[in-house]
Every structure is written in C-alpha cells, then in structure tokens.
Amino acid sequence: MQLQAVILDIDGTLTLSNDAHAQAWVEAFAAYGYDVPFEKVRPLIGMGGDKVIPKMVSGLSDEAGDGKKIAQRRKELIINRAPELSPTPGSRDLLLKMQQEGLRLIIATSATTEELSDLLKAAQVDDLLDEAATSSDAEASKPEPDIVEAALSKLKLEASQVVMLADTPYDIEAAGKCGVPVIAFRCGGFDDASLANAAEIYDHPADLLAHYDDSLLGKKELVAR
What we know:
The protein is α/β, with parallel strands linked by helices.
C-alpha cells in the first residue's frame, strides 16, 4: 500500500519531555502524601494517567478522590513547565520534510488537549500540526489501541497506509494492535530491547531525516501486516 500519512506521538518524540512528566508525577503524588520514586514511574512514561496512577498506588483511580486530584496536579505542573522543554533534535525539519513529500500528519497522544497546545509550542511545531487525537478521543490510553484507532478514524485511512513515529514500548504496542508499523526513537529514553517490536529505530528525528530515503518514509510502499 502507498504511504499516505504519519501518526505522531509528541512526548519523547517531538519534545524532550519524558523526564519532566516523570518528575511531575513524583511531585503530584507527593502533594497528596504518596511517596512514588522517580525511577519507579519513569519506565511508565508513555502510558496515560488512567494506567500510571493504579500502577503506582493500588486502589487509586484517575476518575475519583486522590487519584483524580493527583492527575489534575500533574497536568498543571506539565503545563507550567512546558516553556522550559526543548524539541527533540531535528523534529521540525523532519515534519517539514514529510509535509513536502505530501504526507498528512496527525498527533496521537495520551496528553489532554490543554497539555497538547503547550507541548506543540515547546516542540516549535505548533504552526505545522492541526490534527490530533488526544485523551478525550479515547476511553483507554496507550498501550491500549484507542488513541491510534482514533487517529486512523480522523485520517479516514487504513492501517496499511500509515506509519507511526514514537518513542515508547507502549506506543509500539498500541500501534501494533491496529496493524500500524512504528518508527521508534531512542531520544525518549527507552533502550533498543524495549523498542524491539518497532519496524525501525533511530536516535532521534534528525537521525531519521538523515536516513530518510532508506527508511519506511522514503520507500513509500508499505507491506501489509
């Protein structure tokens, strides 16, 4: 099938924000009396709050009580710190290249719509992207496929016409459940073993751009999965 569009994760893929998200969780939990170490929550970045909160504290949910308050506090912390975040190397140039090649781009993220606006500004690509599937479009976050399915629905394309750019094993699992191949980046902080189910792995967007013609993006023809 001919490649028509690219689904984009944002945290760790377009912005160097994964550590900031982990730290925000640590501080949000602490604000309500829960001791959650950075090293415990960091490997879970890429999942949404509906997954992270009960994994960190049994019995808590992001829908009620302390869990809901913690989720709100984490969101506030990330929004406040977004101006301090940096783009991943080459993210804007890669997006411009994909647009020049005629590819349609859409964000698929566990972030809320409020967070997304600030994260896109931090990535310095807010003027390039106007389509997105966010937490409000999905019942469950990654690694469940809901957000990727929502992106495919908005694109009105088949999985065989799309590639996803992402940085966590949860992105890869979510996309895989939809039959969408993933080009993964190491800049999100996950090692190659964690990203092993990706179709391709690069250091960061600049690395993919440097090898664009030899990548899935450059080949344009996707093998049905």
